[in-house]
Amino acid sequence: MSKNKDVVVLTGAGLIGVAISRRVGAGKHLVVADLSMENAERVAKDLYNAGFETTAATVDISSRKSIQALIKEAQSFGEITGVINGAGVSPSQAPIEAVLKVDLYGTAVLLEEFGQVIAEGGSAVTISSQSGHRLGSLSEEESELLATTPTEELLNLEMVQAKNVKDTLHAYQLSKRCNVLRVMSEATKWGKRGARINSISPGIIITPLANDELNGPRGEGYRRMIDGSPVGRAGTADEVANVAELLMSDRGSFISGSDFLMDAGVTASYWYGDLSPKMFK
Amino acid sequence: MSKNKDVVVLTGAGLIGVAISRRVGAGKHLVVADLSMENAERVAKDLYNAGFETTAATVDISSRKSIQALIKEAQSFGEITGVINGAGVSPSQAPIEAVLKVDLYGTAVLLEEFGQVIAEGGSAVTISSQSGHRLGSLSEEESELLATTPTEELLNLEMVQAKNVKDTLHAYQLSKRCNVLRVMSEATKWGKRGARINSISPGIIITPLANDELNGPRGEGYRRMIDGSPVGRAGTADEVANVAELLMSDRGSFISGSDFLMDAGVTASYWYGDLSPKMFK
Amino acid sequence: MSKNKDVVVLTGAGLIGVAISRRVGAGKHLVVADLSMENAERVAKDLYNAGFETTAATVDISSRKSIQALIKEAQSFGEITGVINGAGVSPSQAPIEAVLKVDLYGTAVLLEEFGQVIAEGGSAVTISSQSGHRLGSLSEEESELLATTPTEELLNLEMVQAKNVKDTLHAYQLSKRCNVLRVMSEATKWGKRGARINSISPGIIITPLANDELNGPRGEGYRRMIDGSPVGRAGTADEVANVAELLMSDRGSFISGSDFLMDAGVTASYWYGDLSPKMFK
Amino acid sequence: MSKNKDVVVLTGAGLIGVAISRRVGAGKHLVVADLSMENAERVAKDLYNAGFETTAATVDISSRKSIQALIKEAQSFGEITGVINGAGVSPSQAPIEAVLKVDLYGTAVLLEEFGQVIAEGGSAVTISSQSGHRLGSLSEEESELLATTPTEELLNLEMVQAKNVKDTLHAYQLSKRCNVLRVMSEATKWGKRGARINSISPGIIITPLANDELNGPRGEGYRRMIDGSPVGRAGTADEVANVAELLMSDRGSFISGSDFLMDAGVTASYWYGDLSPKMFK
Prior knowledge:
Four copies of one chain form a homotetramer. Helices cover about 45% and strands about 15% of the residues of chain A. Chain A has about 280 residues and is an alpha/beta fold. Chain A has a seven-stranded parallel beta sheet, sandwiched between helices. In chain A, helix 1 (about 15-25) links the parallel strand 1 and strand 2. Chains in contact: A-B, A-C, A-D, B-C, B-D, C-D. The interface between A and C is medium-sized, with 25 and 25 residues.
């Protein structure tokens, strides 16, 4: 058997990324990278104690240098055959600039950099969000700008300048729409290496933080949204992993450049059902 | 055990619908409906000889009465817990009016009618097409019209009148985009019954007919499109079934109102890669 | 939608049971039962924070009354449609009597009791062990005794009396073989309710405890066993869940009364390869 | 991308083998081999028209030379990463000698020969039968003889000599038990190449021939067996493919040397339920 293992890189050590890693990481070397080394080490240890071979690392996806350093570290264990990107900041945690720097620009850099080293037959999934599906129509020109503007010029686009971005939620929606569009343009490049890339746009997925919010002062609004959705419940990270595993395995080998919305029908209901836009303020 | 079986209805007895039926039909009663009774019977017999309990039926999805009759027949075997819609006409087979009547209006009626009888916990998948993803941007108003106009008024919409539809391909793209939007608005209704509905937009999937085309006079263009796609090959009905099975099973129980594009990255490449729009004429 | 949820009961809140629960528990009510209420509560809370609706409970599977009380509690949430049994004691933790009382008798009682309440369409998986596959040949008579002796008389069988049981490992192997045989005889009863039951016999699956052992004084022996196995590595609870999920879902609806050995080929190598019996002392 | 494709070899072009091929063959080169070139060509054409890249070939698995020639042909397309063995003769079609020559000896040769060329990471599934599970207990010595006797001496074993084999059913049961044991001993060798091998023992799976029998003069007996089984129905080749796909994919990468019985609980019921041995005469 070959000395070097297949390497899977997880960026952003949250519940969804971990659930996906558990599906695709067995028998491989799993690099668990997070902005916080403490998080990365805790998750890497949990996964080690669940049978995975892991290394903890730090990464700031808004920094190309940091991503390049992570790639170099990952390559020391073998060829990178899988990438799971769950890194990002939420619109309630960060100011507009940070959302755009991390979620819009950072994701674009990450896809670009891993696209230059991904192994033949490799595959990536990046976690976008249902939020991007509530942004409304973009013109073909706007879509093309988000999809194809050279990464280092993305933050100079007129449409993401302060005056054109209403609030952090708007910045987040723009970023998540951009993720999906970058996945499209990157897919054409990853394809030339025999690799694939897709995104998943999850709805409300329960985490400890989400449960705190559901039980907190703004909880009633969220619960109304969940109860009013077609499926009528929140989702689990394990359900996101159901889709991610298909996309990253041979079963999904015909799929590239796609986004998979899984949100209990919230988006459908936002546009054409009971969940009126007012509920999402 | 209960006398009545779970019933799965397949409309359109083509390769994709059959592949999906094989995944979700075991132990259930499978009603195989097609415009041609001969087709329906041939497929029903094949599936019977592969271990499935089947009944052949006819349906013209452009007729509400025909769909209602099919539903009545299906219900005679038990509750309808699954619907697989693969019926439709292709833009190279039919004039503009027929494409709109079957693919746009017919699909809308079918989703509406089955949405009034689907069992709690039931699930449907309708086969759309990558073509809908090449239509270009619609305004929010246009999308809403396609999504929510009462079904019997759909063919009166200004945007589908003869003067506004360039050719059969355009009619097909409009229809397939409409399918995805109807799935969204229907999902909000199916949800109230505890049921789910999603669509899949496949790319080039090989069938005997497709192989004839690939080896025929226009084959070179198709082959260039396939070879130039990010994945670099055509797909199989079985791969579409990988996604459909997830959507129709418990593994997809958080997913409703979504469309899943699986096209080897052709759409991505059409918009932002090597597959220029000229190749799709 | 119906008020009552489908209920899945997990007995034994270890890593394998939890991994399976994450696959099959979404949208259902999950009763997490363990001998230790502290364990049950910790796991129930973790799963709650991962999006599952959970209740913690205690159960001593060696007590029929305790199992009956658990069933009653579970039924208060709805019909029991799934059972995951991961409860048991290990031969290195407990004396012979306890191994037989819990692993042999307790499992038999549990399968019997749940078999009297399982819903139509329901399914169970019980976790056995590769150890049972190293016991060696039993005669048809011995197998039949383990399979069909009335549960309350199982511990009176000659073959499980102190003089006939060498050590705790032997007691464990007998128990695990018995589990597989009880699954066979129970499957015929569960079938009459339209329900299914199967077992999985995992090999070395990594847990925090297992890692401690691998890094401890006896670690070298274990590592030699893992390295010498055909697959060459230990397994993960998530991989056991791959098989359990298939067995418990519609995809496994033709399967009942079976045992699925997944052990990296250790059993094969023990009998016919490099892993000589001496390594298992 | 590499010029050479991954090659999957199917031996025995029956319904089960074809169903498995459809799951694991997309994007690979599929060599469809059968004793009858006519069968091989028909199936290869069907699969070609379902999107698979195929080559038809002949093979007589009871001939080492024939297997070696098949391997050579398969290798001309690339590395062999998958093997699906569905070849064999049924006890109602052939005399004792032929059953032993093909099902017992032939399968053993096939596993041995492919085990010398299988790619690292490769995987095989061989189709055994529930019949082997009704043979009754073998001693450890007998099992070891079937598992490890050099292939060319297998047919000289005392236990397979004419005087010790009651009828063709007995020959078939011995052969199928032998398959499972050869899989164990081969797994230890395949493991040294980083490859895995497992078997599946299906119960009554519907094929056109099976339907003829069910509707024929001996049909009542079969139907009683099916109706009396715990699951209460016959199975489909697609359900066997559910298990085979798991075993051959990354999801089953911890599994080697195992046999997976999937038979509606018939074996369980034969030994410990309503299906008395008399029904199987």
